[in-house]
Every structure is written in C-alpha cells, then in structure tokens.
Amino acid sequence: MNEFLANVRALLGDAHVLTADLAAYATDWRGKFTGQPLAVLRPADTAQVAATVKLCAAHGVAIVPQGGNTGMCGGATPDGSGTQAVLSLGRLNRVRGIDPLNNTLTVEAGCVLRTLQALAAAHDRLFPLSLGAEGSCQIGGNIATNAGGVQVLRYGNTRDLVLGLEVVLPDGQVLNLLRALRKDNTGYDLKHLFIGSEGTLGIITAAVLKLFPAPHANAVAFAALQTPQQALQLLGLMRGHLGDRFTAFELMSQASVAMVREYFPATPALFAAPHPWQVLMQASDAAGQEALDAGFQAALEDALAQGVIDDVVVATSEAQAHALWAVRENISEAQQHDGSNIKHDIAVPVSSVPGFVEEVLPLLHAAYAGVRPVVYGHLGDGNLHFNVSRPAGWTTPDWQLQTDRVNAIVLDVVARYGGSFSAEHGLGQLKAHEMLLYKAPLEVDVMRRIKQALDPQGLMNPRKLLPA
Ligand code: FAD
Ligand code: MLT
Ligand code: ZN
After folding, report:
1. Nearest C-alpha to atom 6 of ligand 2 is from which residue?
2. Given CB 3.0 to 4.6 Å as the disulfide criterion, which of 95, 137, 218, 444 pairs with 68?
3. What is d(CA 256, CA 195) in angstroms, rounded to the nearest whole number?
4. Is residue 365 pLDDT above 90, yes or no?
5. At what angle do helices 228-242 and 353-367 cross, to 10 degrees?
6. Burial class of residue 395, CB neighbours in 10 A (0-12, 13-18, 19+)
7. What digits encode the pLDDT tens for the residues 372-390?
C-alpha cells in the first residue's frame, strides 16, 4: 500500500491524495454507513482518472467513486477494511461545450447539478433534471444512479437526458461515447450499461446532456384531498387539461407535511385544517403565461367541482411557488432530524398506487402499534418513498433491527403488484441483497456476467449493487 500511495502521490500531487480528515468522504448523507478509506484520490481530469485507475488495477486497490455524496444507499461509501480508495470526481468540473442549436451540453462528471441548470438557463434552455440535492449532487453521480427527481413525468429519468458518455473502464482505458446524436443505431448502445451502474462498471468522466426550450410560463399549486385514489383522478384530470405542459405531480401524506412543519417551523400552514393527503403540482410552457394560467385554473375548477380535491392553494408569485416547493423538498431533511426510519423507494404501475397504499398501510399498523408511515413521492411516476418511522417508545437501534421484517411487509406487496423495490436511488450497499429476493435469478446472472466481463478483478465499487 505504501508503494501505491507513493505512486498515486507522484501522479496527482500530495494535495490531492488525502489520508487524514476523511470524515466527509467516509460517511453517507443519511449517516447510515461509515467506512474507512485507504485514501481519497482527487484527480483533475480524465487523463488523471485513467492513470489513477491503471495504478489501482496494478496494485489491486478497490475504487469507490464518489460525486456529491448525496446518495441514499451508501453506494459512495467505502467498507471498513481500510483498503478501498475513494475516487472523488469533484475536480472534473469543466464545461466542455454548449450547442444551443443542437440543444446539447457537454460537461465533466464533477459539475454540480444546479450549476448546469443555471448554465442552461443562461442560454435560454432547460436542463430538466431536478431534485432536492441539486445544490451538491454531481452530474456523474446523477448518471451513475440514473436519478429521477420531480420532472420525470414530462422529461424522463436521467437515462433519457443523456446522449453521450465518456467512461474510464476498470483497466484504465478511456471509452469515448461522447456523441451528441439523437439517432444512432450502430450496435449495442453501450452508454446505457453505465447509466445506473452505480460505479460498478467504470468511472463516468463526462457526458453529453439534452437541453430543452426554457419554460417562461409556470404555474404551481398545492391541493388537499382525501385519498390516493382521488390523487390519481386529479393526475388524469390535470393531464387531460394540460397535456405535455403538466410537469410535476408529487403526493404527500399528512404525516410528511406535519414532519416538515415540525422541523422547519417557518413552513406556512396551507390549509385551515389538516387533510390526509396533499399534492404539489406544476405546469410549464415555453411561452404564454396567460394561456397556461387559464388551463391550470380550468383544470383546478374542474377538480373542485367534481369533488376530487377539497381545497387548493395556487402560487401567485415566484416566491410563493418556491415556498410551496420547499414543503415538498424539505421532507427528506425533516426525516433526518426525526431520526430512525426504514426507507423504501418503490414503484408500482401508476394506476396501482392507491391499491398498493391501501393494502400496505393496514399491514404495517397491524404489525407495529403506533408505527408512523411517512409516505410521499413522485405519484406521476408510480414511485413512492414509503418510509416507515419508528413508533413512539422505540429506540433507534431497536427499530433498525426491524428492517428485514418491515421490508418484507412492504416489498412483498410491491412484488405482487409487479413493482420495483428500488425505483430511484439505486441499490448501493443498502439494498444489494434484495436483488436475490426480488429479481429473477437469470436477470442477476446476466448482470454478474456483464460485471465479470468489464471488471474481472472486481475492483470497481465492490459489493455495491450486486450482492456478494
Ligand atoms: P454519490 O452519492 O456521490 O454517488 C452515488 C453512486 O454513484 C455511488 O454508487 C457512487 O459510487 C456512484 N458515482 C458517483 N459519481 C460517479 C461517477 N462519476 N462515475 C461512476 N460512478 C459514480 N435521488 C433521486 O433519484 N431523486 C430524487 O428526487 C432525490 N432527491 C434527493 C433529495 C435529497 C435531499 C437527497 C440528500 C438526495 C436525493 N436523491 C434523489 C438521492 C441523490 O441525490 C441522487 O442519487 C444523486 O443522483 C446522487 O448524486 P451524487 O453526486 O451525490 O452521487
Ligand atoms: C425525494 O424524492 O425527496 C428523494 O428521492 C429523497 C428521499 O427519498 O428522501
Ligand atoms: Zn424521490
């Protein structure tokens, strides 16, 4: 290891091989996993990433790629052996080019998502990936996790926003797939192997991203309703009125909103009394604020007239729209303050969400008196964060010991609905073992064959995504 460290210092410079004060790199955002890195390596560009990976391969050093370290599954956290190197991508933060006529942006992996959104806006374009961690997550991490976020309804997942990639393979070769093409049928589309691979097949160093027309008209509202079934009806109704202009539809249980108000006391009470479910909606258009407002208003009046919603608050300024979004975006952090919760990130067909919720909630309440489900998420995509906070009186360690039982209650129902046990955040080290429970053995076997073909030494993010 000393020889490896000396070589990598010679390559990157002493200042970029960290062996002390590594806490920020050793623990995940939730504080659920803590490892012990051999070192944190901070290459400056693709050539340095490639040379670093070659050195690691020669010395048999395992690599844990790390972007903004906002992942929810411990994917970017090394194990406790002290033998794995964290490869931090933050210095690869250059914009390689923007082509507004081709509607593409070519950037390095360490660019922070919010910076890219701002850059697109400065060119009167939209880069639509948007999520609560956008101020610190990096585009490389977004691609490695195939992040979803709050505009999937209209623009798709990260996978749908990537046209090209540059990847350093586990042997240190640079695979250049940086094409800015919307059509290209020349064999297997290799970039899709790396999107969502959570650093297990190679290091993403750059990407060509899709841009869209900037939305100059926006409408945002928060609605109160009684059931997830009504939320589903509302989704259909809003889409009927607004078509593709409807961009976000986020469901929140009353417990989620109450938790935000508890830990962010400045959060306004939007309705006179609590309602069991609430929904945050957004519509956008390239132009025509008046026409968008009229469509939005007509849809909401229709929903009120049909009794689909009880009440609604419509933002009348950008500041109000931000305040409404803050209620939704602060749920994750409020849950952090609240302490132990068993987190699920599931998807079922959109039409099955109400049935799924109505089936699981009584099972949880029957198993644990006083349990506090905090259910929220991207109903428009059938993806819910079905988090189960500990019942009053339970200690955090005791509640964590219930993880397997709580998971079985929730995920067995997900499986019956033909759903996914991890719809957004990936598997990391938190959910890798669930592959064996909920994926067909042949599917897992094909994944193992791909991993073996690309990373025969098993040095790329070991034991993440695929169980040992
Ligand atoms: P990291 O956490 O650093 O890494 C994540 C994984 O990707 C790890 O396995 C890591 O090894 C790998 N990786 C990172 N960079 C690279 C690279 N360049 N090459 C290869 N592998 C790499 N996620 C959603 O999908 N939707 C949401 O709505 C959402 N909301 C969130 C809200 C909050 C408040 C927080 C804290 C997180 C949220 N997340 C959400 C989860 C997280 O932000 C995303 O998973 C994000 O894409 C991770 O990016 P990152 O740069 O922080 O990656
Ligand atoms: C969200 O949608 O807020 C996230 O994916 C983060 C979370 O699950 O807490
Ligand atoms: Zn989410």
Report:
1. 332
2. 137
3. 31
4. yes
5. 160
6. exposed
7. 999 999 999 999 999 999 9
Which ligand 1 atom sits nearest the alpha carbon of residue 67? 3
Per-residue pLDDT at 1: 82
Q: Which amino acid is at 78?
A: P
pLDDT score for 13: 98
Q: Which atom of ligand 1 is nearest to the CA of 72?
A: 41
Counting ligands in written order, the one closest to the CA of 385 is: 2
Structure tokens at 441: 């053995």
Quick check: helix, strand or coil at residue 279?
Answer: strand
Domain 217-332, what architecture? 2-Layer Sandwich (3.30)
**CB contact set of 330 (below 8 Å; sequence gap of 6+):** 132, 260, 263, 264, 267
Q: What percent of the chain has pLDDT over 90?
A: 97
pLDDT over 90 at 445, yes or no: yes
- Residues contacting residue 362 through CB under 8 Å, at least 6 positions apart: none
- Extract the tokens encoding 418: 């033909």
Is pTM beyond 0.90? Reply is: yes
Q: Estimate the share of the chain in helix, then strand, then coil, as percent rounded to the nearest 5.
A: 40, 20, 40
Label residue 213 left, alpha or beta by phi (over 0 means left) and psi (-120 to 50 means alpha).
beta
* Fold (CATH) for 95-213: 3.30.465
Instruction: Please tell me the residue having the least CA distance from ligand 1 atom 32.
Output: 132
* φ, ψ (nearest 5 deg) of residue 351: -70, -20
Q: Residue 463's CB: how many other CB atoms inside 10 A?
A: 16
Ligand 1 mean position to 72 CA, how many Å? 7
Give the H or E element holding residue 445: helix 441-454
Cα-based distances in Å from 230 to 176, 251, 304, 320, 433: 48, 11, 11, 25, 35
pLDDT tens, position by position, 427-438: 999 999 999 999
**Class (C level, CATH) for 2-88:** alpha beta
- Please state the domain extents for the chain: 2-88, 95-213, 217-332, 339-427
What's the average model confidence in pLDDT over 340-368? 96
